[in-house]
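Worked example 3. Consider a protein that binds zinc ion.
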Amino acid sequence: MADRAASGAFLAVLLAGLVLAADRPAAAPAALPDSYPTATEVRLGGDDADTRFVMDLSRKIDLHAFTLADPYRVVIDIPEVVFRLPPKVGESGRGLIKAFRFGLMMEGGSRIVIDVAKPVRVAKAFVIDAAAGDPARLVLDLVPTDRATFMRNMAAEDRLLTSSTTAPDQQSVNRSDPRPLIVLDPGHGGIDTGARAPTGQVEKDIVLDFAKRLAARLEKSGRYRVLMTRSDDTYVPLDERVRIARKANASLFVSIHADSLPRNEGDAQGATVYTLSNKASDAQAAALADTENRADVIAGVDLKTEPNDVADILIDLAQRETKTFSLQFAHDVVSDLRGTARLHKEPIKSAGFRVLRAPDVPSVLVELGYVSDRDDLKSLMSDTWRNHTADSIAKAIDSYFSTHVAATPSGGK
Ligand SMILES: [Zn+2]
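Given these inputs, the predicted complex is written out as structure tokens:
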């Protein structure tokens, strides 16, 4: 009965959606190859007893749906899709669905992550072909269940989390080249947008552009090889970023961020350089590390599959040398940034950032500024500021290699 009422309500939403879709131009200008399927509309229907998620697609695709706990989520993995959806879609929910996100998860694969209000069961998940002028549609029906059943179903699911295991070895690394390898790590990406400014700019775009400018400067100097953990709008899991640096034998790992912090968390303004520590230097640093470490949750990566204990042991055993080098580089960055960027009143801090956990690669996380602060945002969006600040960090990398590691075999030349 509830089922019938739900489908009635759902039909009304569906019809409204179709009317809207009919008003739309047949084909939007293609910035991307037409070969990708396009998602044009999402509708939610039903209620707490049975919630339906529908996405209109330009053609039929395969899907793989699975659930994750703590917080409860439903993840749908699909081939790479161009999302041409209205702004703010997914920010509010209906029935069992609280909100949803979508984006590129890796090259060739997109992901939809649905936050659900309570344990659910995926009653149906399918894609129907386009027919009689209707677009193809991805349909997902969710019904409530109890936690025990949810956990049991989750364990039984064939979770092909390829995203967290396939390594995007984007650039090949030339091991015979003696120059130090710098790994630049633009934070977030794809489905994980990072912080969002009140005016709409997102952290993932700001830091990618900045990292590209820095990479260009370092490469131009001829002194370094540069590897980026991502060079486009793709999500890369945190442990994967660490793995890329370790596998490539990196001399230095620089993660770039531009986060936001709630107002009551102190003066969230000015650049800050973070190093790894089991004990956060203050509450603000701890809060930020918590936010950053949640990136994998946002992207629907199951943290349970990652060897946390191993990582913890590695930290404890981490060579003092790595820590010392990280801290020395942090000081270099701060001293070179002093001329160009406004610095946080305590510009060097530490906290348990997962992305800084390589035991053998000196690693820092640079917060360029906070998008939640109006003055910081103004700087962050300025071409001149980005160029000057990239110059300063490049200079800090020069100082680091010439003063601290000149004596080591892989150090500056
Ligand atoms: Zn961030």
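Take a moment to read the result before moving on. Residues 217 and 332 are 17 Å apart (CA to CA). The longest strand covers residues 38-47.
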